[in-house]
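Fill in residues.
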């Protein structure tokens, strides 16, 4: 029988079309993450050969391995005399977190996000089932995880590290990425909105990271490493012990969440969820009497979640200050090497706080971008249509959202400063609350720059809010690290906003740079709001 011209690929053509669609929707993000992860790995391996090799003796390495603060932050240092082992120790956890977060965001966007926007209604109008769609999305995420893993492994091999260690580390990258992609697929079936699914999956990432820290920092809880992908990746010990057994456990972590998602999606209605909020509760009308009140209500829960996560991290950092200072005092060579990598001043409490607060710009900017991204998601879901049908200026509605986001940023910065100070007090480190607040406030211009970029995209390229909003913080941070590590010309580093941050509270703030960055933010917001007020609504 001749194949139908309407279905040139046979009965499986609809499924193949969906697979191509999901690959097209994820390819840019996957390639970007692969480039970042591979670039970081290659850079550190190259930097080790030019800067770190033959400079640290065995006694210093032993002291590093025995320091609990170092183990909690970066994991157990293994095979530091090998460029591959040093690279995995220094970049392993950040790369795994980056890949895992990207995977869960992609998973919730392709599933619950597409379902909320009504896209799945069209796809399911034919012969496809929800399970068919979820299988295609899972295949796409696993393919993306493989691409990222191959990129990391290739970068390590090209820079001259051992091929077996590179292969095992790449397998850990694949397993962790696919695991949290599966977690995102599962949470998208359990709860009824993309935001809730993303929050729940992100909480799983946070718990997994905390379990790894607990397992590496406290010998009595070493068993906890077998219950988190981060801990399993550490137990593989690429370039050191090269264990294969933890990879089989990691494979279970890959399969179980995805299989659970398949089981759930086959048993729920389109638009439904396993965890459903009762529809019989009394109406909650608090903060619904004005546009400003509604904006505060929408931002309250996400802001609280970000504040708890950031506060927990900086509380831990503050509690480790004394241990880090003691280690740097006994091993000054490590402080010198850290300075060459862009983390100078680690020999004092103020200098260490300044280095850690510089990293605060990343989650703070991510929060700002996420709030503008939520506006776009609500717009595509047609939640803004009724509001804009009223005699309400778009300048006012968008300006209110932006103002509330700025207020949320202030909450996050104060939470980080207060948490680090509290941790320092508990550990007896010499860090005052004023110094902590100054250090956190110092990164505000960079975080606001992410807000300005996101609003600019809101007005002119709403589909690219996530990417454009991340450029000042993610792109700027990577450019700053790369420029310092490779000895690039000074003008290249000056492009990054991080290059203009002073080491507050160790030094005085760079008021001129802060004012300039804030002015750029205001200009970007003004241009973005101008475009937003004149374009059509997304839908």
């Amino acid at each position: 029988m001749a194949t139908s011209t309407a279905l040139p690929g046979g009965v499986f053509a609809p499924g193949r079309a969906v697979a191509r669609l999901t690959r097209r929707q994820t390819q840019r993000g996957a390639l970007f993450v692969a480039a970042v992860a591979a670039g970081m790995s290659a850079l550190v391996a190259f930097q080790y050969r030019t800067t770190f090799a033959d400079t640290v003796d065995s006694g210093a390495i032993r002291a590093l391995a025995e320091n609990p603060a170092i183990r909690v932050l970066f994991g157990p240092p293994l095979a530091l005399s090998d460029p591959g082992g040093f690279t995995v120790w220094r970049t392993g956890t950040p790369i795994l977190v980056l890949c895992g977060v990207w995977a869960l965001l992609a998973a919730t966007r392709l599933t619950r996000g597409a379902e909320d926007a009504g896209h799945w209604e069209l796809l399911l109008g034919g012969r496809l089932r929800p399970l068919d769609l979820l299988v295609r999305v899972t295949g796409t995420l696993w393919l993306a995880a493989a691409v990222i893993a191959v990129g990391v492994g290739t970068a390590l091999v090209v820079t001259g590290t051992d091929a077996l260690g590179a292969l095992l580390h790449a397998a850990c990258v694949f397993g962790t990425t696919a695991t949290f992609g599966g977690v995102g697929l599962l949470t998208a079936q359990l709860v009824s909105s993309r935001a809730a699914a993303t929050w729940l999956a992100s909480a799983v990432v946070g718990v997994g990271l905390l379990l790894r820290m607990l397992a590496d920092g406290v010998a009595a809880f070493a068993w906890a490493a077998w219950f988190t992908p981060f801990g399993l990746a550490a137990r593989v010990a690429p370039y050191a012990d090269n264990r294969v057994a933890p990879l089989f456990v990691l494979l279970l972590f890959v399969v179980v969440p995805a299989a659970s998602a398949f089981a759930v999606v086959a048993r729920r209605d389109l638009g439904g969820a396993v965890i459903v909020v009762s529809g019989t509760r009394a109406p909650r009308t608090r903060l619904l009497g004005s546009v400003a009140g509604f904006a505060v209500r929408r931002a309250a829960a996400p802001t609280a979640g970000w504040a708890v996560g950031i506060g927990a991290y900086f509380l831990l950092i503050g509690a480790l200050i004394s241990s880090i200072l003691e280690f740097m005092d006994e091993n000054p060579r490590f402080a010198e090497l850290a300075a060459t990598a862009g983390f100078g001043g680690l020999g004092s409490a103020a200098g260490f706080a300044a280095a850690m607060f510089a990293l605060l710009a990343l989650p703070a900017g991510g929060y700002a971008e996420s709030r503008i991204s939520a506006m776009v998601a609500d717009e595509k879901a047609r939640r803004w249509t009724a509001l804009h049908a009223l005699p309400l200026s778009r300048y006012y509605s968008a300006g209110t959202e932006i103002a509330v986001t700025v207020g949320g940023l202030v909450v996050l910065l104060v939470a980080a400063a207060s948490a680090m100070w509290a941790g320092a007090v508990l550990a007896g480190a010499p860090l005052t609350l004023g110094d902590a607040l100054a250090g956190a406030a110092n990164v505000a211009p960079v975080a606001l720059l992410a807000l300005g970029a996101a609003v600019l995209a809101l007005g002119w390229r709403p589909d690219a809010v996530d990417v454009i909003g991340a450029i000042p913080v993610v792109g700027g941070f990577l450019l700053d690290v790369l420029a310092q590590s490779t000895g690039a010309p000074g003008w290249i580093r000056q492009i990054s906003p991080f290059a203009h941050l002073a080491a507050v509270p160790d030094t005085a703030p760079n008021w001129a740079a802060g004012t300039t960055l804030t002015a750029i933010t205001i200009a970007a917001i003004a241009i973005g709001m101008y475009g937003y007020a004149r374009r059509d609504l997304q839908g």
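The chain has 21 helices and no strands.
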